[in-house]
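Task: complex structure prediction.
Instruction: return structure tokens for all chains below.
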Amino acid sequence: MEDLKIDKKINIKGLVCPYTFVKSKLAVEDLEVGQTLEILLDYEEASRSIPKSMEDHGQRVLKVEKINDTDWIIQIRKEKE
Amino acid sequence: MEFTEDQLQRYSRHIILPEVGGKGQKKILRAKVLIIGAGGLGCPVGYYLAAAGVGTIGMVDNDSVELSNLQRQIAHNTSRLGMLKVDSAKTTFEALNPDVKVVGIKERLNKDNIMDFMKDYDIVVDGSDNFPTRYLVNDACVMLRKPLVSGAILKFEGQVTTIVPGEGHCYRCLFEEMPPAGLVPSCQEAGVIGAIPGVVGSLQAIEVFKLILGKGDVLKNTLLIYDALKTTFRRVRVPKNPGCPVCGDHPTITELQDYDAGYCGI
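Output:
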């Protein structure tokens, strides 16, 4: 599988809801349609709620992955303004 | 502009809404809204606009706080008796949100000053308590093409309508001329239950946010009537009147006029 080009990365470790989503949503707003955001987080609930809310807002969730004992990465592609 | 960490927290419940987001919140922070009256309606409207971060809130009122106001005018309080209402409201709203600048205009509106007060604002909210002001504000908004969110309250009833000049009705399409003074309730008849302005003012604030954000449907060509005793909301269709004397095809009112204030406000 070819490597995905990541256009922007944010680290929101230490944040809890709803600021995990606030920061992620603002980062998506800064992207152009078609660009990809990678989010690094350590708040487990947000690893479920961010993908769900992003889909509700019309964005595409490309990946949700637990990368170690504490952290997840989520990749989002911006589909709409 | 970038949000500060405090702003991210303060406005987080807005930013997470699809209809608002960071972009919408920035529109709110840049918005300039003029509120006519710092009384029953002006207080809750101003309160929610200030809480939401509307950058500039103008308030026009030349009255001072009286004890009889405090049953419904929630921006004022007992320690502010005798203070100008615009100064009291400014103190309350700026304490609630330091992002907001409140401009107090301590004047009574008339045909010679209204255009000047309105010119720097994007949206006008009418929370006035008398027909002469209501008609003056309507006519000025039509002439300046400023959106106007109009509210009115009496007893257990409230009304809200949103006038978008050029797109929908205006107040004169609804009521062409002012009612004669004798038909308007006198002071002793003009009671109002204290929470009514809260309901109507909140509806007006929501209309303002939709105008700022460009989302949803405002009460264009529509009068919303709230009956608190029956707990009903009624929508009445108000078509734009092509023969309207101020916004019609051939307007007969082309400059502002002052009306005799033979009315008793609430």
